[in-house]
Amino acid sequence: MRRSGISRAAVFRFRPSFGLRCLAACHRASYLYQMKNILGRILPATAMKRIAPDWEPKPRVAVVRLSGVIGASQPLRGGINLAGIEETLESAFTMNHAKAVALVINSPGGSPVQSSLIFKRIRALAAENELPVYVFAEDVAASGGYMLACAGDEIYADDSSIIGSIGVISAGFGFTGVMEKLGVERRVHTAGENKGMLDPFQPEDPEDVKRLLALQAEVHESFKALVRGARGDRLKGGDELFTGEFWAASGALARGLIDGLGDLRSVMRAKFGEDVQLKKIGSRKPWWRRAGLGARAELPNTLLGRDFSLNLAEGLISAIEKRSIWQRFGL
Q: HSE of 133 in the Cβ direction (CA atoms, 13 Å)?
């Protein structure tokens, strides 16, 4: 029996062959799709366009976490500092097919110098690689932590985040009278009349305090200039923004210190689409590296060597100092 000139036998012979060809084509398409995805993660966009002109990469955002007190790392004393995160920042800004860099900040502040150095490095990398920077504050982005946040083109925060504290603080203890009670005589010899200023074992000298306040005023002015330059006409307010006061996110938004309320995933999806890939840059370090102890080979000597007592004392003091910084913001 024939239909349209084609025998039934021919139809049955044709159908399996056609199905196999379709299956093979699907396998090839799937293989090519997977290969494009693999190569897309490795090759720059220009190279991929030459290989597959119709290829379009999924939007990717490099994510860098900056968490902790800002300051130099020492044995048993970790901290956010430029030397420790510079490589991570460079990797983030040079990631293939990156549409932006997101900074997740959770810091109560610390060293104004390290804060400034990190801020400048982020802005330089953003300009060199022509990438926008989005900042997301977690528990707190205050003092030096807010200075880091100002490196972002836009700043977002959770409703309960603490933002601000644009000021300078210096805190310590006075131990006058302690040496006499302990029966210890302290001997200090200096070359330079102000070399021993702010000695905690001596009564506070008004002239020393005056010099310290002048120094703080200079640092404060630099901080205010940085914030004004970064936020521009988004700031809503005058000098009351720079008293050292801090606010919850809604108060910070009303004053122009941040640009909106939101979390990393929701904001990035709104800007770059539902299929945006959030790529975390920087691996989790072992506990001794997070404590600032250096490489694994240094661990036994650092913990059990002759400096054990000194490192332990420094570590305890550092822990108390850090705890006091976090507690200023109720954390």
A: 28
CA distance 160 to 138: 8
Tell me phi and psi for residue 141, to 5 degrees: -135, 85
- Percentage of the chain beyond pLDDT 90 is 46
DSSP-assigned beta bridge partners for residue 131: none
Of 34-43, 78-87, 192-201, 291-300, the poorest mean pLDDT is in 291-300
Q: If DSSP codes are grouped into helix, strand and coil, which group holds residue 95?
A: coil
The DSSP string of 20-31 is HHHHHHHHHHHH
Nearest-angstrom CA–CA distance, 140 and 203: 36
Q: What is the pLDDT of residue 315?
A: 57
- Say which residue the tokens 């901080």 belong to: 223
Identify residue 111 by its one-letter amino acid code. Answer: S
Sign of CA dihedral 89, 102, 141, 143: positive
Q: Are strands 133-142 and 154-157 parallel, antiparallel or unpaired?
A: parallel
pTM passes above 0.85: no
| Residue 116: count of CB within 10 angstroms of its CB | 19
Residue 285 near residue 91, CB atoms below 8 Å: no
Domain 60-169+225-327 class?
alpha beta
